[in-house]
User: Fold Phospholipase D family protein from Pseudomonas mangiferae.
Amino acid sequence: MARADAHPGRSGFRLLPSSHEAFIARAELIRTAQRSLDLQYYIVHDGLSTQILVDELLKAADRGVRVRLLIDDLNSDGRDYEIGALAAHPNIQIRLFNPMHLGRSTGVTRTLGRLLDLSQQHRRMHNKLWLADTSVAIVGGRNLGDEYFDAEPSLNFTDIDLLGVGPVAQHLGQSFDQYWNSALSKPVQAFLWRQPDAGDLQHARKRLQRDIAHARGEQQDLAESLLAYRQRPRLQGWLDELIWAPSQSLWDAPAKVLTRDEPDPALLLTTQLAPELEGVRHELFLVSAYFVPADEGMRYLTQRADAGVDIRLLTNSLEATDVPPVHGGYAPARKALLKHGVRLFELRRRPEQQGAGGSAGYNLTGMSDSSLHSKAAIFDRQKVFIGSFNFDPRSALWNTEVGVIVDSPELAERVRELALRGMSPPLAYEVKLQRRGDHTQLVWVTEDHGRLHVLDQEPAGLWRRFNAWISSAVGLERML
Assistant:
């Protein structure tokens, strides 16, 4: 890209903290792509936002753009032929990462197949990466699905992506190629009894157009919002706002998922991230949807806090998380972290969705209406890390991840401001220790209607408390 030529050795960056902007950027990158589109995702859910993006991908393939889509197999359940129909296009290739070979035909046999090989099913490709012409990239926490772009009315994942231009996209392209060419990535056609043809592709196109047209009639406001990029493109303006800075792209080696025990450190993103963590001297902000520090994390955080580093963590509260058992791996660490001076902030559910008495309701799926999904770290207000990596054992040891470190005080400050906003009393609980007689207990400080108040019981329903307690009681910390 010509813009990058004027900034040798640097890449250009722009935050995409808004779900609307994150969707527009992806859609417009498809429209402007000239040679290639490479997409790597853990989750691809059906829904209007995905349908619109797939429609654009088909149009790009029609004009000669090579499209490669790499999906983690865990989230392709029952959709082999649907996915395979798209791969019938001569310019579209689709591969599944770490696929299950047993019992793919039905939900029951898939479940049995997973039970026969739990080790394989436990290790997934959690990467989220979008590449256009290997010159522009989007990396961050968002999967593809309506819940990640505020297109699902009952769900809102608070997330952040990073748009990168120049060398960073080329480096991330190397990451994609490593995964694409890995022996763990298999063409979707390998799992089909009958190979889709041009007729199947045409049928899929018609169904896609029908679904989008139906949504434009039934969900007019939502459809108009998602499709606004067609009349009011914004990508070129964003590219004029880029922050140019040195950067480093980090990713786990695909072979990480082949290890039966803990993987070789040489394969790990955490090994690449460690120098930044060790170099922190004054301030460390961590934003992580799922936070389970484990023994190594506890030693690091408490030692740094004892050395005078201002450490603040923003994660989900029990009432807001979409995976309550993970909270059970985090909750037992809170008192020790607080005693050493680490500040803990837990994102609330949105106040307008609180139930009677200020406590959120629950449902049997464990899904909440609002959930932090961002993954970021800010080092001494100088550097920032954004990617798919949660600060928990699952991201560190079992799943594969990808991310970018940017050496830019300006970008770090913008992410810091977003983190501070998320930590503010109207949006989060600050967990504190309070002396009660001869013992201390946890309390949750927050603000409603402009007034601070203190809760001495963790805000959450009984079902969520039970889920969190079970994971803690049976010692699942290393698996979370």
